[in-house]
Amino acid sequence: MSVKSALAAVLQQQGIVTSQQAAQLTNSSPWWLQLLLGLAAWIASLLIISSFLGPLLALADNPLLQLLAAVMLLAASLWLATKAHDFVQQMSVAIALAGQGLLLYALYELSGQNDQVPRYACALVTLILLASPLNQLHQRVSLAIAAVCLLSLVQSAVLLAVLSALLCALSVWLWCNRPRWAVLSYAGRIKSLLEIATLSALALSLLGQCLLLFDSSHWLDHKLTLAQALYSALSSVILLSTVFWLSKLATVPSRLALLSLTAVLCILLYPASALLASTALLLACFYGCSRRWAVLCLLSMLFALSQFYYSLQLNLLHKSGLLALSGLAVLAAWLLLKRYQRRLV
């Protein structure tokens, strides 16, 4: 018996997965075959959708008919999602996204070309489809589109900073509690939501650190300085809370030392809010045993560090001194952790 078969048998005995899910685990196709099947399914779906939507948009300039066609596409995608074949699963994703796009276009026309109605409708449809049998790829893509639509409605820099902190805190909490929700029947939906929340938190934290550069067109209000201070303060609180939770098994002196070093790091890197938020997410993703997201958080840290070093807010000597002291604080924390691990052995 292979490792996958043994793992699927144990998960099925403990009631974590059903017999159908266990069969999918053991009979999964190689990655290269899934890639070829997905490519073929998307090409076939585009041909089918274009042959269906092209004449409809050209001949029937009626939003109600377009709305009906969108509902039909969504119903077809839900039916295809119940099939277990990889090719059909990829087709269901493509047809569902086409149905969602046509639905939003029809609502845009029905609302008198009000662009806010489709944005709210996109978020509502995404929440409804989370309870459908569509696969995780569609859930992630739909959640990403819905997040972009909702965040595009925000025009306050302070509110954007608060939303960034809330998404970061939610992501850290979910990553740290991954063993608890991973055994639930709806763990796949939580994982999709977690990944989009983590990606949004990283993107918003980088936006907050580069707020003066990105808002050259005056998209947000004029409280950019207050928003940047709020970004830094909330990121520091999240990093301190993460270290406090992750060091719960350490001794009291070691825990106080780690929290003190983290506080020093937050003070030194206060202008680099994205670096603090990415560090907290990196620790949480590493604790949640996700290498892929830990690497993504590390890349976000490198980008935030580069932006901080080459920004013009502080002089080069000042920034070099802050980074050198921050490196010493991280080195001291590492030596403290190594000493604690030796005491456990």
UniProtKB/TrEMBL annotation:
Sorted UniProt keywords: Membrane, Transmembrane, Transmembrane helix
Keyword Cytoplasm recorded: no
Transmembrane segments: 32-57, 64-81, 87-108, 120-137, 143-176, 196-214, 226-246, 258-287, 293-310, 322-340
Signal peptide interval: none
Domain DUF4401 residue range list: 30-340
Keyword Cytoplasm: no
InterPro entries per UniProt: DUF4401
Protein name: DUF4401 domain-containing protein
Organism: Rheinheimera nanhaiensis E407-8
